[in-house]
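Lecture 7 notes: from sequence to structure.
We start with the chain below.
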Amino acid sequence: MPYLYSNLTIDKTSAVPVYQQLSNQVIALIKANQLHGGQRLPGSRQLAENLHLHRKTVIRAYDELIAQGWLESRPGSGTYIAGHIPKAELQQLSRNNPSSLPDPLSTAGYQLKAFSHLQPEFVPAQASLYLDDGFPDARLAPLKDLSRAYRTQLLLGNPYARLGYADPKGSAKLRNELSAYLNETRGLNTTARNILIVRGSTMGVYLASIALLGAGDAVALGESSWSGARLNFIQAGAKVIPVAVDQYGLDLEALEKICRKQALRLVYITSHHHYPTTVSLRADRRLQLLRLSQKYGFIIFEDDYDFDFHYENKPILPLASADAAGMVLYSGSFTKIISPAFRVGYIVGPENVISQLSRLRRMVDRQGDTMLENAIAELLQQGIIQRHLRKSLRLYRQRRDLACQLLSAALPDQLSFKIPEGGMAIWAQFDPAIDLTVLSQKALKKGLYFSSGISHNPHGQTLNATRLGFASSTPAELGQSIEIIKKLI
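Predicted structure tokens for the same chain:
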């Protein structure tokens, strides 16, 4: 069997054991239809001599292949390719016409359903400076305290309970601490039973979309809104209806006109700081939205992604604090408090809704990171997160003021903006003569990343505006970043 020897190559410097190399290559020859069912193989002594191996190595490889069902030993006759193995017609076809089949590592052999609404593949920005979407400065995060608390959770307590399966609703310790924290800071009236811990706001929107929306259900949201929410609603089969947004937030008169024409299942809103424009929903509109929800029976999904960062006065209490009819699902996360890397968020709502969402969550993500959740609970209990927020609030306000001053001085005629009352980004409207896509690409070549703003454009419109995040940059970095934009323009 000369061709067999020529197709077997042993690398004695490889980390893969020699017997395993031999068995893997025999399997590959069978799959490639070069060895057929019922075909006799050389004896172990003969194969060992031809491959310059120890006979025991060949015997071990044969034993492995027999155990796996690729070979069969016939007493007094020898070792054969198992008779039950069929000829690999598909592989034969590909050998005769290699172009007839795709590369299986790059393209599946079956059809995929196209989802044109899904976002493109994530490509991390490679830059040294960032005017991002509005992220926190992870350099300020209480990482040492979090590391200590996480280590404590790993090492102390009942290991079976600590390291085993946990409640899909999330750590009981975190839900209790979070309930107390939200009741105190947001004016809510919750217990741990009203809270589901999720891996960030994106999972919260996904679960709500799958659990509460059906094909054809109508969902209303600002004409310029967070694309992550809109895409989840589309994926759930909902009909997305854009609503105008002005300097006071979502236009409630426009929303009611929609309600008179068709039934709405859900309204998605970022009431505290509208995404992306940062404007706050005015008090009268908040009350009106709650009344409309009760009148027309639609769910309000309130995404309060950066409640803790409000600079001009005390934060406006969320819609959920005045919800007397159980119509509001309230969502938040620790992403903006600590860092996007720590995927811990929450949904607050009526107990029966939270129970249903937790059962659905169990299907896609059995549970969250119990160690991390308990560690964050400990930081809440000890007041560490609260102190971190007070420090961050002071620094981010200073950075906001500096960024606004620098932009006004450097680009007085090229862009306009309103000083945001809160949040971590400035909504900057550029002169129509400036191509934001080209500008952002040129800036990236200079080491500065900022968004082209394309994702914020309503269908058929070009806003030529983008979010310029200030919180994640030091004063020196803000100065360098804005100077790069000035020089490019």
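Points to note: The first helix runs from residue 2 to 6. Confidence is low (pLDDT under 50) at residues 90-95.
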